[in-house]
Amino acid sequence: MSVSGFFYEKSKALIRLDWGLIFVMSSIFGLGLLMLFSASGGQWMPWALPQLLRFGLGFVLMLVIATTKVRLWYQLSYVIYGISLLLLVAVEVIGAVGMGAQRWIKLGVFNLQPSELMKIALILVLARLLSEIKEEHIDSLKRLLIPVGVICVPVALVLKEPDLGTGLLLLLIGGSLFFLRGVKSWYFSIVG
Questions:
Q1: Which one, of 178, 155, 177, lies nearest residue 167 by Cα?
Q2: Which of 63, 82, 88, 117 could form a disulfide with 157 if both were Cys (CB 3.0 to 4.6 A apart)?
Q3: What is the average pLDDT score of the chain?
């Protein structure tokens, strides 16, 4: 694909975005920014300017992600999951302790919480794994063992931090994807 073709595709994708939702999100951010500015006595530091920079970075990242073809996320799902899993293991080795829990990796400018990345990675990898199971095999325990393991490994690592809330959320994400894929409800009662 040529450079002009790339930018043409991105511009088409930008036009298709839900700009009403983006406006609402940006308005809420603006209100929050005004509150931070007011709380700091009309000064940009220490809260308003860092929040503005984080929002700007997040906004650009959101546009890049939203205009990327879904097929690319499908192809990268195992890589994203693997990186997120390695980061969760790294928390155990080099993680920073704060408020009685070891959940963050210090990266100088900001602290990274790998369990937050794992939420997205888990959705991507489970969507791929479950979509590859044929409809007639969706209730086969043998076929569901790998997706269950993909959920249980990060949950165990997150619970070790300890972070019960995020661990339960990862289980809920996994269970929701199993439910949406059509796994029989009696499997859920066994797990429950």
A1: 155
A2: 88
A3: 87
